[in-house]
Design goal:
InterPro entries: UDG_fam1, Ura-DNA_Glyclase_AS, Uracil-DNA_glycosylase-like, Uracil-DNA_glycosylase-like_sf. By secondary structure, the chain is α/β, with parallel strands linked by helices. About 35% of the residues lie in helices and about 10% in strands. The chain is built from nine helices and six strands. β5 (about 160-165), α7 and β6 form a beta-alpha-beta unit.
Length: about 220
C-alpha cells in the first residue's frame, strides 16, 4: 500500500507507518485489493491528505467509511467523483449550505474543492470492500486516523472540527477544546436529518465566522 500523501504530513505521521498495527493493516489492505473489488482506487486511499496539506489545514470533517458503490468514493469523506449522483447525506449537506450561506446547490459532489482550501475530509476507515459497508472496520484504520486527529490537535492551533453524528462526536476526546473550535450536530443522513438533527445547524457560517475572527481566509463552501 503506497502511502501517497502530501509531504507536509510525513514528519508527523512517520512513526505510525513503522508500528506493527500499520504493517498488519497494509498487509490486509493489499490482500483485499488483490482478491476483491475495493474502494476508493488504490492511489486515492490517502487523497484527503494529498489535497489538504498539514500546513494549510483549517477545518476537519470526520466521516465513518467510504462509499461502497461503483465510482463513488474518491478518498474524501462525503465526497463523490464528478458526474456521480449525490448520495443522500451529501444532498443534505448541500441543502444546509444553501440555506445557511445562500449558495446555489452545486452540480458536482466532488469535494476536492474544499480539501484544496484546507478542509481535511477524513474517514475513520479509509477503505471498504464493494457493496459491504463497514467491511474494513476494526482492521487498524481507526488507530491510524485517531492518531491523525490527535496530531492535528497537538500541533495545530485554531482548527475547526465539525463532528456530525454519534460516531464523529466520540472523537471529541482526542481534541483539545481549549486550542480548537469544535462544532457538533446530528448526522446529515436522511434518518437523522428528517428527525430534525441536521438542518439549521449553521456549521458552515459558524466555521467561517470563527476562521475570520482568527484572521484566516474563510472556506468557499
Amino acid at each position: 500500500m503506497n502511502v501517497d500523501m502530501h509531504d507536509s504530513w510525513k514528519p508527523f505521521l512517520r512513526n505510525e507507518f513503522d508500528k506493527p498495527y500499520f504493517e498488519e493493516l497494509t498487509h490486509f489492505v493489499k490482500q483485499e485489493y488483490q482478491q476483491h473489488t475495493c474502494y476508493p482506487k488504490g492511489k486515492e486511499i490517502f487523497a484527503a491528505f494529498d489535497h489538504c496539506s498539514f500546513d494549510d489545514l483549517k477545518v476537519v470533517i470526520i466521516g465513518q467509511d467510504p462509499y461502497h458503490g461503483p465510482n463513488q468514493a474518491n478518498g474524501l469523506c462525503f465526497s463523490v467523483q464528478d458526474g456521480i449522483a449525490h448520495p443522500p447525506s451529501l444532498i443534505n449537506i448541500f441543502k444546509e449550505i444553501e440555506t445557511d450561506l445562500g449558495i446555489p446547490y452545486p452540480q458536482s459532489g466532488n469535494l476536492e474543492r474544499w480539501a484544496d482550501q484546507g478542509v481535511l475530509l477524513l474517514n475513520a476507515t479509509l477503505t471498504v470492500r464493494a457493496h459491504q459497508a463497514g467491511s474494513h472496520q476494526n482492521k487498524g484504520w481507526e488507530t491510524f486516523t485517531d492518531a491523525v486527529i490527535k496530531t492535528v490537535s497537538e500541533y495545530k492551533q485554531d482548527v475547526v472540527f465539525l463532528l456530525w453524528g454519534g460516531f464523529a462526536k466520540k472523537k471529541v476526546k482526542l481534541i483539545d477544546g481549549k486550542k480548537h473550535h469544535v462544532l457538533t450536530t446530528g448526522h446529515p443522513s436522511p434518518l437523522s436529518a428528517n428527525r430534525g438533527y441536521w438542518f439549521g445547524n449553521k456549521h458552515f457560517s459558524n466555521c467561517n465566522t470563527f476562521l475570520a475572527s482568527k484572521g484566516v481566509a474563510p472556506i468557499q463552501w
